[in-house]
UniProtKB/TrEMBL annotation:
Compartments in which it is found: Cytoplasm; Nucleus
Enzyme Commission number(s) from the entry: 5.3.1.23
SUPFAM superfamilies: NagB/RpiA/CoA transferase-like (SSF100950)
NCBIfam families with a match to the protein in the record: eIF-2B_rel, PRK05720.1, salvage_mtnA
Molecular function via GO: S-methyl-5-thioribose-1-phosphate isomerase activity
Protein name: Methylthioribose-1-phosphate isomerase
Top EC class of this enzyme: isomerase
């Protein structure tokens, strides 16, 4: 089983279909922006940094073979396609910030008379390709800072227990992870005692992805149902909660997977420090607070089904008349067969 969410080699982009994990490890080819938009929107690739990287790489794949008449035309195409990619999922800000940076770059390159059309394309594609390496380096730095911060509250050489939510690991990023990167660093320092990861309904990113990554990397961990968090905090001496972010507002309000807020409330109640681990590409300084974050609403099928299996009742069903003793109305109580007898003339 592979833990590489994104494969980009020889201008070919493939993503690991995360809806199928952990049962199946299947890569899907992303041939351009249209495919990129779809795999992000369907959550075959997910996690704020991975969304931005796949979105931008899908543009790179499409641009490479495209012919442009002028730098202006290339700039216009880039802008339109990036804005389209931003609309694939609204809450995570990384794709939006990446799009803004790339549109700025395209503007600069198109205005620079010393840069030819071919050079503009090469420089633009190189900037996108650099995102993969930059994300891994950022995650390693987040891991170092996070581990140091958490250990500064731990006495002596004691080990620490961490609780996390959703998936913030290799599968949500170029590799290593943000909150899971902090956990990996603590583990490599031999200061991690145990991880508790929540299942993370509705899509079970904790059960399907985080637990899978932790088992893969032999990090001691227990998967818990979302409703166990309070009990675990009361009885398991959790040292810190570390989660990721889809968007951090200028005042620090943070949007993350549904359920994060209630974990923060429980952490406060139990005196457990609660940390967000996120790269600067998740911080949106243009909005003053979380009230300005658009919260994505997903289809209800994600709650009523696990994979292809329905686990919730259908909204309506039909009770056969043979089971009904009477239909109670404002005009009296009728046995089912009386409806036709007495009201058959209506609408017939
Ligand atoms: C490093 S991933 C950060 C966040 O994107 C992560 O915590 C999260 O909530 C992911 O949600 P998802 O809906 O699976 O994309």
């Amino acid at each position: 089983m592979s833990l590489r969410a994104i494969k980009y080699e020889n201008n070919s982009l493939e993503i690991l279909d995360q809806l199928l994990l952990p049962a199946q490890s299947k890569y899907i080819q992303v041939k351009g922006v249209e495919d990129g938009w779809k795999v992000i929107n369907k959550m075959q690739v997910r996690g704020a940094p991975a969304i931005a990287i796949v979105g931008c790489l899908s543009l790179a794949v499409e641009l490479r073979d495209e012919k442009f008449d002028s730098k202006k035309q290339m700039r216009q195409e880039i802008e339109g396609k990036l804005n389209y990619l931003v609309s694939s999922r609204p809450t995570a800000v990384n794709m939006k910030i990446a799009a803004e940076e790339l549109i700025d770059l395209a503007n600069q390159l198109s205005k620079d008379e010393a840069v030819s059309l071919d050079e503009m394309k090469t420089k633009f594609l190189q900037t996108i390709e650099d995102m993969l390496a930059r994300d891994i380096a950022d995650n390693k730095a987040i891991g170092e800072y996070g581990a140091k911060e958490i250990l500064s509250h731990v006495s002596g050489d004691s080990l620490v227990r961490i609780l996390t939510h959703c998936n913030t690991g290799s599968l949500a990023t170029a590799n290593y992870g943000t909150a899971l990167g902090v956990i990996r660093t603590l583990h490599s320092m031999k200061r991690l005692e145990h991880v508790y990861c929540t299942e993370t309904r509705p899509y079970n990113q904790g059960a399907r992805l985080t637990a899978y990554e932790l088992v893969h990397d032999k990090i001691p961990a227990t998967l818990i149902v979302d409703s166990m968090v309070a009990a675990v905090m009361k009885h398991r001496n959790i040292g810190a909660v570390v989660v990721g972010a889809d968007r951090v507002a200028a005042n620090g309000d943070t949007a993350n997977k549904i359920g994060t807020y209630q974990i923060a409330v429980l952490a406060k109640h139990h005196g457990v420090p609660f940390y967000i681990a996120a790269p600067f590409t998740s911080i949106d300084m243009t909005i003053p607070s979380g009230d300005h974050i658009v919260i994505e609403e997903r289809p209800d099928r994600e709650m009523t089904h696990v994979g292809e299996h329905r686990i919730a009742a259908k909204a309506f069903d039909v009770t056969p008349a043979t089971l009904i003793a009477g239909i109670i109305t404002e005009n009296g109580v009728f046995r089912p067969e009386q409806l036709k007898e007495q009201f058959g003339h209506i609408n017939s």
